[in-house]
Amino acid sequence: MSAQLLSRELSGIFARPLFSVRKGQRGACKRAGDMVFFEPAGRNKPEFRMGRGPRSMEDTPLMLHTLLELGESMLTDGAEIRSVEDTLRRMGMAYGAVRMDVFVITSSIVLTMCFPDGTSATQTRRIEKSGMTNFRKLEDINSLSRAYCEKPFPAEELSERMHAVKYAKPSVPRFLLGSMLAGFAFTVFFGGSAADGLLAAVFALLVCALQLYLPLLCRNKVMFSFLSAFATGLLISLCGRLLPSVHSDKVIIGDIMLLIPGIAFTNSVKNLFVGDTLSGIMRMIETLLWAAALTIGFVLASWLLGV
Amino acid sequence: MGQATQLLTALLGSLGFALIFNVRGRYLVTASLGGMLAWGVYLAVGTLAPDIFLPTAAASAAVTAYSEAFARLKKTPAIQYLIVGLLPLVPGGSLYYAMRELMERNLAKAGECGFQTALYALGIAAGISMTLSVIEIFKNAKRLKKKS
Question: Cα separation of B85 and B30, whole Å?
Fold first, then answer.
């Protein structure tokens, strides 16, 4: 049965009772397996061309896998939930799905694609690692998905391009330089002297080393925060005792800023207020725990050394 | 130790974090100017209303607007400008002092610093949500107008 015939037949049988079609609204009913869709006419933007795309039966598993990888990568790079869901939905529609159900929280992705032939594909992915925020990668993935939605290309190509983006390593010197600069600047910002700032920049290198290597030993983020804060705090307080002109509290504050989960907090607030309450609350409670562990580590260290 | 130093260090600190978060080279300046904007607004509103909550909310609302505008302009994710710009408002100092006073059993001071920390955090949250809701309303209004 040709698609046109089917749609005409369906619109005769189903359109009135099943859909609250506004009077005068034009469009066509489409059928996908047990589901019937109404596609409004006139909306010919790429993301609304339902069920039309480069999809084939063979590459559906690959596409599903690629989408999950892409979503995972976006999440660990620091994107907010809403934009991950949006990107995955658009890409799935461009690929040829008639309906995309995407549910993302900070620790999991559930993705279902429904196709015009009535089949559907579902997979879930557990997100374990929290990863390093990497906005360059996020931006590359964003432009890749834009390119895909404008003019879809085969799933193999998408997979290849995504992996090329995904495994680009961030540069370590940049990270070190940024940490030193931020440690210096925030120490002075919170009222330290220039000498304090320089000391904070030196300790920023230690914080960097901890951030790069300690997670290999200690997966738990709360424990990680506490340990790295305690180690850094001990050394800074020791410096404060040896060099009386150093304001060790300002140096500590400067280095707290490097470890404080500011990004996670901002993200959780943004999630909460755009309606992703679950993710927002999860992240916010995590953030509070991390921040508490962090400050307890620093304060315990400086208290032990009595500065 | 004037406000100029604070503005400059806010800029430098944001630049540092932009480097840490691996923001692409050509957006580095844009992103770190957001931090300076945040602190500028904070100081300006602070002279009118000497408080923590209101200036922080105003600053975070301004940075959110800035980040959304640039994201639309450059077609890049808004979050990178937002996160970097909000960093000078993150209450690292008062958080540390709150915990420290708590360890030394100065409960009154600890409470005060803790309250300040909460005010900063709430201010950031309020600012973001304010701007985002306004943008959402305008977007929906535009869509409704187009439909009818």
Answer: 9
